[in-house]
Each structure stands twice: as structure tokens, then as C-alpha cells.
Amino acid sequence: MKEARVFKGPRVEIHDVAIPSPKPDEVLIKVIFSGSNPKDWKMSEWVAEQDGTNQGDDIAGYVQSVGKNVAEYKPGDRVAAFHVMRTPSGSYAEYAISPAHTVFHIPDKTSFEEAATIPLAAMTAAIGLFVRMGLPEPWQSTSERRQKTGVDGGLVVYGGASAVGAFGIKLAVRANIHPIIAVAGRGTSFVESLIDKSKGDAVVDYRKGDDSVVEGIKAVLPLGKELRYCLDATSEHNSYQNMYKVLSTNGGKITTVLPGKEYHTPSGIEQSLTTVGSAHTDLKDFAFAWFRLMSLGLQDGWFSGHPHEVMPGGLAGVQGALKNLKDGKASAVKYVFRIEDTEGVSKDHAKI
User: Across residues 97-101, what is the average pLDDT?
Assistant: First the structure.
């Protein structure tokens, strides 16, 4: 099969490799579309042993075969999945492997390209909101729970047009968390389509400068309430520094997504790091439950994928996409790749 390997630069090479076999608790998926994420170029540059590896983690396609312990899926099922990061058999290939607990069914009305935008980014948002900050999940949104957590003071989603930020907004809306104050720039119009201004939700434009962001957030906070929560899907360009100026110093919480940084959090504010790799370790049960709820959301219509662009050339388009991500050219868009568009891949690849 064809597989794309990512080298620092980013530079991508396509190789012929053997089709992997699933272990007892794994699923082998014929990849129809692969998604991409900023970490895909970062790993090859930041971690020496990851240079020249298949960095794809967002899978959408058909189940090809399953391990002996897997009962939930069968060959031919339409699924999306989150591959274990920094391991072989990722999504930049004709076939990929995922643990069964991070595979989920996708309804017929959800396209493979839309589904490929979901796994890594949506799970990052879910972990950030409901684990790292302990916000009430949709089935916990009672008035007593809301009062106890102080969520009525609002939630800031910094980087609302990013995939993680947008999914965070969608999940917060489902959990009836308002007001949602989204910080965005070029993607402001997209973010406005996700929020409910009748419930106090608002968008603050970061392009007007840091002081304007701080004042803009303060201006839309509920009267008499303290801001206690921020999902920082950016974690750079002064995002968390701006939030330190508006978060309550009496139990405010901010969760960030970039590791290896010194956040210098003020006293009275709790900073946590949201690492989506936890979905394959200590948060296995959480990931199992939430991916299946996302599947239900796709069917019922309250959940959806991220806006996306199909890059030409299949796996040959990975290099250009990762360069765009590195250069900061992506706004309110995920780059996805149709595997059968790759040179040397059968045009029947997308068939069951």
C-alpha cells in the first residue's frame, strides 16, 4: 500500500509498505479520507525519532478487518477513528489502525471528508472542557451543578475558528453552557454561526490588539459574575497572557493545548494542559463514551465536522497542507485528503 511519511521542513515522501494487521483490540480501516492537524508537521521537527514517519491520526473509511476481541464493528462499516499518535500505521496511507475504543460509526448522511475532520480535534475539545476544567457535561447541566461550578460566569474559547475551538463551542452549546465568548479573527463569521447571541454569546476580534481583546471580553461578561473558564485552543500569540487579565483569581481555570511552554500562571488561577493522547491511556473510558455520543450527534444533527478543503493529489497533497498549517494560512478550515487520488492507488479503492 501507499503511505506518506513526514519529514521536517515539512517534506513528504510516499512509500510502498505492507498492509498492517490489527491486534486483538484493534480495527484495520481502509482509509477513504485522512484529516490533518498542526502536530503533524511539529512532530517531525520537535521529536527526532518522529522525523520521517506517518503522522496522520484522523481516519475516515470502511472497516477492513477487526481483531479477535472486537465485537462492535464488522467489515464494511462506515467509521471514523483516532489513531494512536506517534505509532505506526497512521492515516496517511491506504489502510490504518486504531484501537476499537476510539473508532465510532458515522451515519450515511455524514461524508467521509467531513468525518475526517473530527477525531483528534473534537476529542481534544471534549477533554479540555469536561476533564481538565470539569465543566458539566450535557447530561449534568442542572441548575445546582451550574451554580457549584460557576459556569454562569461564562466560558471563553480562545481561537474559536480553529478546529479545537469550534468543536469546543459546539460541545459547550450542547451542554447548555452560556455565555460563550469566542476570540477569533479571520474566521469570525464562521464562529458567529456557532453561537447563540440571545444567550449572551459573543465574538471578540483579536485583530484589534491585545488591549482590545481584554476589554472586549470584560464588556460582555454577565454582570456580577466572575469569569472562571477558558479553553485556550491557541496557546500562543499572547492568548493566555490576555486571559490572565480577565479570569477570576479566585478559582479561575484555563486549559492550554501546547506542551513544553512556561505559562507563568498567576496565583489563584489553575492552568492545565490538555493532551489528547490521554484518550488512549488514562481517559480510555471517557473517549469511548464521547466518541459514541459524537456519532449520535452526527445522526441527530446537533454535531457536525469542521469546514474542510480537499487537497489535490491525495497523499501528495499532504506536504502543501502541512506547509500551510506551519505558515499559519489555515483559518476555519481543516485539510483533508482523498486517498484514491494518490498516484498509484486503485480508483476502486473507495469501494467496499
Answer: 98
pLDDT in tens, 303-332: 999 999 999 999 999 999 999 999 999 888
For 14, the 3-state DSSP assignment is: strand
User: Which residue, among 283, 332, 299, has the nearest Cα to 130 in the 3D structure?
Assistant: 283
Q: Is the pLDDT of residue 168 over 70?
A: yes
Extract the runs of DSSP E, i.e. beta strands, from the chain.
Answer: 2-7, 11-16, 26-34, 58-66, 78-82, 95-99, 103-105, 155-158, 180-184, 202-205, 229-232, 252-256, 269-273, 308-310, 334-338
DSSP string, 98-161: EEGGGEEE--TTS-HHHHTTSHHHHHHHHHIIIIIS-PPPGGG--HHHHHHHTGGG-EEEETTT
**Cα–Cα distance, 125 to 13 (Å, whole number):** 31
Amino acid symbol at 62 = Y
Q: Give the separation between CA 40 and CA 158, rounded to whole angstroms.
A: 22
